[in-house]
Write the structure tokens for this entry.
Amino acid sequence: MRRRLPHRIIACCLAVALSVALAACGSGKHPYDATAENNGYYVKLDGISYQLQISRELNQYAVEDHQYLAGLAAGTTAPSATQLWYGVFLWAKNDTKHSVATADNFYITDTQNNVYRPVTVNPQINQYAWVAETLAPLGTEPAPDTTASFGPTQGGLVLFKLPVAVYNNRPLTLHIVSPSGGRDATISLDL
């Protein structure tokens, strides 16, 4: 007489097998590629790991987004009907055993090779603004216990004003320019 396994044991074995299979999905990409596809991936540049926390269109009339638009340089105008605010929120960590400066030069390109530069944001007024810093070993930007690190994005803001036409020219690519003159790191952006 054959003994049947209880349904619970079979279900548990199947659940374990499924979780192992799902954990392997996407494991072909290393989290520290020089280029990254999207949120959550890391790119390495000059000993610093950069992670895109989130990137998205900002609504200047929304309560949450309004705070990200504080501290704009004098003369910066609101987007026209054919423009939009776009926020890129980055996190960085020094993975070396010596102090290293984080990047202070970023730009976005689209599929038509248009180049978009960030809008200047005063970090004395906007506590979410990305500020290039020299990080001690294992230091992070934004620093712990700062508004940006505890905020909903947990990253420093690099702000862009983009034409609405970029929706037709996706994907967008964020370029992080090496402070040492090396090759840029790139991250594909959601829009």
Q: What stands out?
A: The CA atoms of residues 82 and 165 lie 8 Å apart. Residues 29-189 form a domain with the Immunoglobulin-like fold (CATH 2.60.40.1240). The longest strand covers residues 83-94. Residues 12-31 have pLDDT under 50 and may be disordered.
